[in-house]
Each structure stands twice: as C-alpha cells, then as structure tokens.
Design a protein that fits this description.
By secondary structure, this protein is an alpha/beta fold. It folds into two domains: 4-122, Rossmann fold (3-Layer(aba) Sandwich); 141-226, Orthogonal Bundle (Arc Repressor Mutant, subunit A). The chain contains eight helices and eleven strands. The strands form three sheets. It has a five-stranded parallel β-sheet, with helices on both faces. Strands 6-7-8 form a three-stranded antiparallel β-sheet, with no helix packed on it. A three-stranded antiparallel β-sheet has the order 9-11-10. The longest helix is centred in the middle third of the chain and has 16 residues, at 107-122. The termini are far apart. 35% of the residues are buried. The model is unreliable at 123-134 (pLDDT under 50).
Length: 231
C-alpha cells in the first residue's frame, strides 16, 4: 500500500504543487486547509507523514502537532513554515515534530525529507522484542512501539529512533554525531540542541512510567542507556 501523506496548508498556490509532486512520487495524498480538518482526518485514517504549516486560519500548527501527539498519532510530522530562527525550530520539535523546513523551500528538498522520514518510520535499527530482557523496556521495532511492562510508552518518531539506537548499544556511549547522523538526515542543518530537546522528552516519558533504565549524558561525547531491567 502506498504511504499516506497529509498536507495541511491553507494557501492553494503552495498546496497544489506539493500535492502534485507527492502524487508523482506514488504517495496517497490528502490535502486539508485547516487544523481542525487535519485532526479530524488523522482520527479517521492515520497518515504516515504529515506536512504541517504553522500559519493556519483556525489554530496554530504547533497546537495541531501537540493535539495529534496527545491523541496518540505516531507517524512523522514535518513542520513547514515561514517563521525563522532556532527558537521556533526547537519549540516545534518540543511539541512533537520530527522535522522542520523553512519557507521558501525547493520541492526536491521536501521530497528528500519525506523519503527520509518514511525510511525511519517503516524500518528500524536497534533490536526487536525477542532481544529485550524480560521486564523493563520492550521495543517492538517492526511496529515502532515501546512498552514498559504491559503499558505502551507514547513516543514520537525521533524519540523512538534515538531510543532504538541507544538500546541496541546498551551500556555503551553513542556519540552525539552518530545520533544526529542516524536520526536526522543529511539535509538537517539545525542546531544540535534539537537532540538535547529530544533526549529531554525521552527521559521524562521513561521516568514517568517508572522504567529502570536511564539515559545518561556523557559530557562532551554523547549518551548511554544504562541499567538492566531487573537492576
């Protein structure tokens, strides 16, 4: 089945070229022009990738992103906006976005980023359910779902990718450079603070469900997942 892409953009002159380009790539594309329509559509038929404009007529795109994640949407969200600056980028990621593209942008770049997001959401590194010790964290790579005991831990795409890499290198330090290269694609030129934001959210979510493993920062090097489930 073709990947489903939801385009959330209220300006027709921007939306139409996007839709045509993505359809030529073979994706199933749905276009809506408001935040509420986007949330309604995701409730009916979850998308693989959401391309989300921030300047929508009924609500801020960040609110759409936040509500979608709170409702359990686990697909990729790429924010597209005319807003500039590192602060806006970090805030968008903190609300649960996976990528951030500033207007104006080239259609070729957008296509490359969508492909990168689909690669990360359709395949996984790390290890599967059978490789995880009983108790503690359980990572289902194929389904891209994480459990603490019997309870699912809701993670964004970036959070899942970071955790998978750390878990597959349990008790070993994974460098910041490797995490940025493996989780964010080669088109990412933003600040590495985005990694710190993602790590911070991941820690909070794991701690909130009482997971024994800890994501530990190794100053000047990277991060390490440590602690056996029965420790």
């Amino acid at each position: 089945m073709a990947p489903r892409v939801l385009v959330v953009e209220d300006e027709e002159d921007i939306a139409f070229p996007l839709v045509r380009t993505l359809e030529r790539e073979g994706y199933t594309v749905v276009w809506v022009d408001s935040g509420q329509k986007a949330l309604d559509d995701l409730e009916k038929a979850p998308a693989d990738v959401v391309i989300l404009d921030l300047g929508l007529p009924d609500m801020d795109g960040l609110e759409v992103c936040k509500r979608a994640r709170e409702a359990g949407f686990g697909g990729a969200i790429m924010i597209v906006t005319a807003r500039a600056g590192e602060l806006d980028r970090v805030v968008g990621l903190d609300y649960g976005a996976d990528d951030y593209l500033s207007k104006p942008f080239g259609l070729a770049e957008l296509q490359a980023r969508v492909r990168a997001l689909l690669r990360r959401t359709s395949s996984g590194g790390g290890f599967g359910q059978d490789d995880v010790p009983e108790g503690g964290l359980r990572i289902d790579v194929a389904a891209r779902r994480v459990y603490a005991g019997d309870d699912e831990v809701p993670l964004t795409g970036k959070e899942f990718d970071v955790l998978s890499i750390l878990a597959s290198n349990r008790d070993k330090v994974v460098s910041r450079g490797r995490l940025m290269a493996d989780v964010w694609d080669e088109n990412w030129y933003g600040s590495t603070k985005t990694l710190d934001v993602t790590i911070g959210r991941l820690r909070q979510k794991l701690e909130s469900v009482g997971v024994s493993e800890k994501v530990v920062a190794v100053r000047g090097v990277g991060f390490r997942l440590e602690g056996a489930p029965d420790a």
